[in-house]
UniProtKB/TrEMBL annotation:
<dbReference type="Pfam" id="PF00755">
    <property type="entry name" value="Carn_acyltransf"/>
</dbReference>
<comment type="pathway">
    <text>Lipid metabolism; fatty acid beta-oxidation.</text>
</comment>
<dbReference type="InterPro" id="IPR023213">
    <property type="entry name" value="CAT-like_dom_sf"/>
</dbReference>
<feature type="domain" description="Carnitine O-palmitoyltransferase N-terminal">
    <location>
        <begin position="1"/>
        <end position="47"/>
    </location>
</feature>
<keyword id="KW-0812">Transmembrane</keyword>
<dbReference type="InterPro" id="IPR039551">
    <property type="entry name" value="Cho/carn_acyl_trans"/>
</dbReference>
<keyword id="KW-0472">Membrane</keyword>
<dbReference type="Pfam" id="PF16484">
    <property type="entry name" value="CPT_N"/>
</dbReference>
<dbReference type="GO" id="GO:0004095">
    <property type="term" value="F:carnitine O-palmitoyltransferase activity"/>
</dbReference>
<keyword id="KW-0813">Transport</keyword>
<feature type="domain" description="Choline/carnitine acyltransferase">
    <location>
        <begin position="175"/>
        <end position="714"/>
    </location>
</feature>
<keyword id="KW-0808">Transferase</keyword>
<dbReference type="GO" id="GO:0009437">
    <property type="term" value="P:carnitine metabolic process"/>
</dbReference>
<keyword id="KW-0443">Lipid metabolism</keyword>
<feature type="transmembrane region" description="Helical">
    <location>
        <begin position="105"/>
        <end position="127"/>
    </location>
</feature>
<dbReference type="GO" id="GO:0005741">
    <property type="term" value="C:mitochondrial outer membrane"/>
</dbReference>
<feature type="active site" description="Proton acceptor">
    <location>
        <position position="473"/>
    </location>
</feature>
Length: 720
């Protein structure tokens, strides 16, 4: 290809007269601009690291504190160094090198800086103490007591001005460890509606034995970890729940996000990819510069931002016993899959990010490429869809050297992975359920070999311009990916398209084309690929997916009834499940714990005694008034459980960590073993719209997405 020569900085030819050196000035220019871009990025990161490190302090605050201190001492004719240089002068001949005035200035700056740092540490400590109080969560929605209002004012005062993404990390409190007694009581309460009297009495005996004997010893070790580690749950949760799992992550772990439901911005696949990729890269730039505002509950209470750190340039690397997360600080390319071929596409040229039309140009080149896949290349990604141990062994045997390693490095170190899918997916108003079912299953697992499931993010753009996202779960939870996806969807109408559906702008005349990745895949490796594909297809075929659009009413009507929309939906799901199965089951709803440092999720056990009472009333002959009373009780109970989960008083993460400690100590606990083996047959997690301000749904109600979803958490389970 002619474009490939531009990537070579120099060429030389050996002649009888010597070596004839030919420099490519364009290539050298690109090297220079790339270096400038990298150094700018490093400088911004260094500056942001300092700004975050001293927050809620700021350069302006430093100037005010030091300036005021110096002015006060000058007015009072005091020594601003507080005698520091006088004491040092007794041992070191400072006067030889600095005049008295210089000593006063330098000493004043040092003392003023110490005062500024002290003020910062006090503000952080006070803010951490304030954020440890959660009484505001007990207030009724729309009304706050005077104590909560005063508390919010104090939080705002000590929170500083113009925070960056990671500004509050050092001010967030640590996740508290609940008491053994509280956890055991809440556990028994949660399983009471699921057991008959005999089963419950047996479990009660196991619980009481654990609470009195082994529990306190395990709790001591857990308390010790909570004092030492930033979060006593997160590292074990990531390792044992995600990375140590040896089954497929496709369906079982990865989840998906969907496109607009009613809007189809363009039917040109390359154009849709151009705008979407550009939007994602703009988001990554803001993330690198920490310019994304931290999520704030009630515009006041900061949430932990630690999960954003590994959004891009991240891959889950398989291991024989456990996987690892590989993250690189910088990646200037993405990898694109189309019809069995892999292409490396650079995202920067002339020291800048490619524009949407230029990215579309690159996608057009890939779509126009008629080359055939190399032997074994087309289904290579099936290795990431099957069991983890075979993939780890194949990776070590066939991808640890040569061009296979180079190509695998290109995939694993890419900013993210993109599939130009050769199928068409779209919401069909004439056949809404079937069209969404097929669309969701495609995003969840595709053909089982056209997504690189190990990548933190897989973007899928279909032949007709519809798009979606598939995300690996171990590095972060769905709200983090949802935040990115909301940005991408909101940017699409702003970037816009021409009348004929292309991205706005012009193609670049000298843009080097995509680079085809090369593989040499022997027969033994192809057998491993086919084996993983067989496992993955069996799993994909076993998933029965149905998405039913509901337009009768929304959360607005539920709020008018003074009921929590989440509680309403959870109770409705319990009623639906009971009418379908004729019994209740252990139900999993995820709640975030990001009010604490490095917090991830906690479980809300939605099947409560109060909810079961309401369900029985609905299928029985109780009056309308009685049913309404029981509904309000059930909703209030659910909200209380949600508050407990958000404030670190849930039970499942505590029990999980106690179980991990017991394994480290070699202790066998019948109680913990039984608790952690109980299957979650109904999983009802959901992620609401976080950045409402990005979408004008009053003027444009059509700009809504059908959200996303995930696979069943166990055999014969139901998800929403």
């Amino acid at each position: 290809m002619a474009e490939a020569h531009q990537a070579v900085a120099f060429q030389f030819t050996v002649t009888p007269e010597g070596i004839d050196l030919h420099l490519s000035h364009e290539a050298l220019r690109q090297v220079y601009l790339s270096g400038i871009h990298s150094w700018k990025k490093r400088f911004v990161r260094f500056k942001n690291g300092i700004m975050t490190g001293v927050y809620p302090g700021s350069p302006a605050g430093f100037s005010i504190v030091v300036g005021s201190y110096m002015a006060y001492n000058k007015f009072k004719q005091l020594d601003p160094s507080l005698g520091l240089f006088t004491k040092l002068g007794q041992h070191i001949p400072i006067s030889r090198y600095m005049s008295t005035d210089s000593q006063r200035i330098v000493g004043g700056i040092l003392v003023g800086t110490s005062l500024w740092v002290t003020i910062i540490m006090i503000m952080r400590t006070v803010l951490k103490s304030l954020l440890s109080w959660h009484g505001w969560m007990q207030e009724r929605h729309g009304s706050l007591s005077w104590s909560s209002r005063i508390w919010m004012v104090l939080v705002k005062v000590f929170s500083g001005r113009k925070p960056m993404l990671y500004s509050f990390q050092n001010s967030l409190p640590r996740l508290p460890v609940p008491s053994i007694k509280d956890t055991c009581e809440r556990y028994l309460e949660s399983v009471r509606p699921l057991m008959d009297d005999q089963q419950f009495e047996r479990m009660k005996g196991l619980t009481q034995d654990f609470e009195k004997n082994l529990g306190p010893r395990l709790q001591w070790y857990l308390k010790l970890k909570s004092w030492w580690a930033s979060n006593y749950v997160s590292d074990w949760w990531e390792e044992y729940i995600y990375l140590r799992g040896r089954g497929p992550i496709m369906v079982n772990s990865n989840y998906y996000a969907m496109d607009f439901l009613y809007v189809f911005p363009t039917s040109i696949q390359a154009a849709r990819a151009g705008n979407a990729i550009h939007s994602i890269m703009l988001y990554r730039r803001k993330l690198d510069r920490a310019q994304i505002k931290p999520l704030m509950l009630l515009h006041t209470i900061p949430m932990c931002s630690a999960q954003y750190e590994r959004m891009f340039n991240t891959t889950r690397v398989p291991g024989v016993e456990t996987d690892t997360l590989q993250h690189v600080n910088e990646s200037k390319h993405i990898v694109v899959y189309h019809k069995g071929r892999y292409f490396k596409v650079w995202m920067f040229y002339d020291g800048r990010l490619l524009l949407p039309r230029e990215i579309e140009q690159q996608m057009e080149r890939i779509l126009a490429d008629k080359s055939e896949p190399l032997p074994g290349e087309e289904r290579l990604a099936a290795l990431t869809a099957g069991d983890r141990t075979p993939w780890a062994k194949a990776r070590e045997s066939f991808f640890s050297r040569g061009k296979n390693k180079q190509s695998l490095d290109a995939v694993e170190k890419a900013a993210f992975f993109l599939t130009l899918d050769d199928t068409e997916q779209r919401y069909d108003a004439k056949n809404p359920v079937k069209s969404l079912d097929i669309y969701a299953k495609s995003l969840l697992h595709g053909k089982c070999y056209d997504r690189w499931f190990d990548k933190s993010l897989n973007m899928i753009v279909y032949k007709n311009g519809t798009m979606g996202l598939n995300a690996e779960h171990s590095w972060a939870d769905a709200p983090i990916v949802g935040h990115l996806w909301e940005h991408v969807l909101s940017m699409d109408p702003k970037l816009g398209y021409t009348e004929d559906g292309h991205c706005v702008g012009k193609p670049h005349p000298n843009l080097p084309g995509p680079q085809r990745l090369q593989w040499t895949i022997p027969a033994e490796c192809q057998e491993a690929i086919e084996s993983s594909l067989t496992v993955a297809r069996a799993l994909a075929d076993d998933v029965d997916c149905h998405i039913i659009p509901f337009t009768d009413f929304g959360k607005g009507l539920i709020k008018k009834c003074r009921t929590s929309p989440d509680a309403f939906i959870q109770i409705a799901l319990q009623l639906a499940h009971y009418r379908d199965k004729g019994k209740f089951c252990l139900t999993y709803e995820a709640s975030m714990t990001r009010m604490f440092r490095e917090g991830r999720t906690e479980t809300v056990r939605s099947c409560t005694i109060e909810t079961c009472a309401f369900v029985r009333a609905m299928v029985g002959d109780e009056t309308r008034e009685e049913r309404l009373r029981l509904l309000k009780l059930a909703a209030e109970k659910h909200q209380n459980l949600y508050r407990l989960a958000m404030t670190g008083q849930g039970i499942d993460r505590h029990l999980f960590c106690l179980y991990v400690v017991s394994k480290y100590l070699g202790e066998d606990s019948p109680f913990l073993k039984e608790v952690l083996s109980e299957p979650w047959k109904l999983s009802t997690s959901q992620t609401p719209l976080q950045q409402v301000e990005l979408f004008d749904l009053v003027r444009h109600p059509e700009y809504v997405s059908s959200g996303g979803g995930f696979g069943p958490v166990s055999l014969a389970s139901s998800n929403t």
